[in-house]
Write a structure and sequence with these properties.
single chain, alpha+beta, five-stranded antiparallel β-sheet, 5 strands, 48% helix, transmembrane, transmembrane helix, TadE-like protein, membrane, TadE-like_dom
């Protein structure tokens, strides 16, 4: 009986003591805070890299408006990515496609010498795309594939 009273008294004293409560609360909450911070850093870096790639694609679209050809537009994209300095050459891949289509069916590719309905000339399009993987600190890697299309005629 004496042992039980001593145990109850010790438990009561321990339960009413509030010293160190903040340290225990922080020890429980701290890892969640760090995980959230690292996850938001991952998302922020992915958004930043996506915006950078969109900027590079837009600069390629501006060059494609002059219709210099597929190789010249691809070279512009690679030069702008190299100037940006964010990626190594093997970390980001670009693709440029120049094709023609009629106004009635812009998704259907045709030979550029083809005449469309009403003897109208074909429209010329450039499709620019990028492919990159953004590594994460805590979250899995993000696979980004932004693309843009521009009609030049």
């Amino acid at each position: 009986m004496r042992g039980l009273r001593r145990l109850l008294r010790t438990t009561r004293c321990f339960a009413s003591d509030t010293r160190g409560v903040a340290a225990v609360e922080f020890a429980l909450f701290g890892p969640l805070l760090v995980f959230g911070l690292l996850a938001m850093t991952d998302v922020g870096m992915a958004v930043y890299q996506r915006m950078s790639v969109d900027h590079i694609l837009r600069s390629g679209v501006h060059h494609a408006i002059e219709d210099p050809g597929k190789v010249a537009v691809l070279a512009t994209l690679k030069d702008n990515a190299r100037e940006d300095g964010m990626w190594a050459e093997d970390e980001i891949a670009f693709d440029v496609d120049r094709f023609c289509a009629c106004a009635e069916a812009p998704e259907t590719k045709v030979v550029c010498a083809t005449s469309c309905d009403g003897s109208r000339p074909t429209s010329i399009y450039y499709s620019l795309s990028a492919d990159l993987i953004v590594p994460g600190l805590i979250l899995p890697s993000f696979h980004l594939q932004p693309a843009m299309r521009v009609q030049i005629r």
